Structure formats: structure tokens, C-alpha cells
Amino acid sequence: MSRRTAVAARLLAAATSAEARAYGLRERTVDVGDARLAVLEGGPVDAPPVVLLHGYSADRVVWVRFARHLLEDHRVVVPDLAGHGASGFTTGIGYSAPAQARRVVAVLDHLGIDRAHVAGNSMGGFVAATLAVDHPDRVRSLLLSDAVGVTQPEPSDAELLFRQGRNPFLLESVADFPDFYAMTMARPPFLPAFLRAAIAADYVARRHQLEEVFRDFYGVATLDDRLGEVRVPTLVMWGEEDRLVHPSTAGVWTTGIAGARSVTYPGVGHMPMLEAPALSVADYRAFLSGLPRVSRAG
Fold this sequence. Notes:
- The protein is built from eleven helices and eight strands.
- The chain has helices at residues 3-23, 64-67, 97-111, 123-134, 157-163, 177-184, 193-205, 207-217, 249-256, 272-275, 277-289; strands spanning 26-31, 36-42, 49-53, 75-79, 116-121, 139-145, 234-239, 261-265.
């Protein structure tokens, strides 16, 4: 990494931390046994808890602009999952959805939260749904946004590459980043070129780490045959221009989970909470408002 790119990376980290603090999110670290997870937390401690889980190769920052709209009347918890972001990577500890779900339970235990509304995007949706199946007493409701973890009826652009033995997340050089970045979002928020370069360099540096994480979670312990075990209210949210997980996958979740409802967004890609935060959080708040109010203890 060049000196200029290293400076850009530090600026990006400082800017995202400052934005989170400005919204009222506090940083803390939680020891979950095999890892120490970096967590953002905000909102009244006695309000209904909401846990927001990011996707593969991303981090907690992707939820910050969505989270800000929940902080007045919810206790919001946004962890960097093990192997990602400020939580760091340790080889060999396991990055499957069940392993990540167990770590989320450990975060809830540490924070004194019995049950929470759990939202997840992409891999985070897989973790959230696994949490509802394996630890049903800890989940009050689910938001599954562009979630992996079930079979895609139609292959996405990324899935077609996977079938060719190519993983678009594993970058050999920064020159590979623009094509990959274009796949992640249809309406990405503005980011100066020098900051995009820092993100690209980070992907290249983490290539082997991301390869291990992918091997542990993708296509492993999928939930196709277990969706009937999800017994909590569920909202399925999808960007209609998603190139990473085909929009047809939303129907698998809504058909398999009893009573699940769905909302889709024209012109939006894989991350509605980042591409259209105000719109997507309004739909999520409407979903939550239809549920019985619960306290911190659930």
C-alpha cells in the first residue's frame, strides 16, 4: 500500500467513526471467546433492541446511515462480525453462519439483551436467519435484506462467476476494483476517488482472509430445508438491481417463512440500507410498528 493510500485509509476510518459518533453511536469491544468484536451501540438502553449485521467483506459502517433513524426509540447494536472491519481476522476460528450466530448471541449476553429484532444484509442475513433457527429464544423479528443462505432460483452475475471458479470479491489488484464495486450497488453513495482507491487496496490486502471466510460460509449449512423453523415476524427487503444475489431469491425466503412479507426497490442494488437509507428504514419502522412493543429484556 502506497503512503498516499495509507493516508486515505486512515482518513476514511476517521471519517466513518466521526459520522457514527455524530449520530450518537458509541464504540465498544466485546469479547466473545474466540474473537473480540468491535461494536457500535446507541439509543436508550431500555428501548427495544435492534441488531444490524453486515455482509461478506463489508463492515458495520454500511448500516450507520440506516441506524441513525432508529436511535431515538431503539437500542441499536451494530457489530463488525469476526473476520471483518475493526474486529479483525484470525485464521482457523470458523466463519460459518452458525459460528457467527453464536458470536452474536455472546454479544447479546454481554450487553444484557435477552431478545432483539435482528436485521442482516447478504451474509449478515444468513447469520440473522441462522440465529432465528438455532437460537429462536433470542430473536424477536427478522429483516432479511438481499440475503444469501438459500438457493437462488435464477443466478446472479456473481453466481455465474462463482460457477466459473471466479470470486469477484477476491481482487488480485486495485485495477479489479471498479468492476467489483459496480456489482455491489446500483446507487452507491458518493465517495472521492482517493478513498475508493484505499478501499480497493484493502480488498487486495485481505484477499486470502476473504477467501477463508468465503469458504467457511458460502453454500455451507444453507437454510432451504429449515425455513419452516423460523417462527418470528419477517420482512424480506431487496434491491431489484441486485447483481450479487438475484432478486428471485426474495421469493424463496418469503415462501419458506410463514407470514413473511416483502418489499423491493427499483433502481437499487445489493444494499438498500446504504443506497436508499431513508426509504428502507421507513419500511422497516413501519414493519416494527406493527409488532407488539418489547422492552430491553424482550
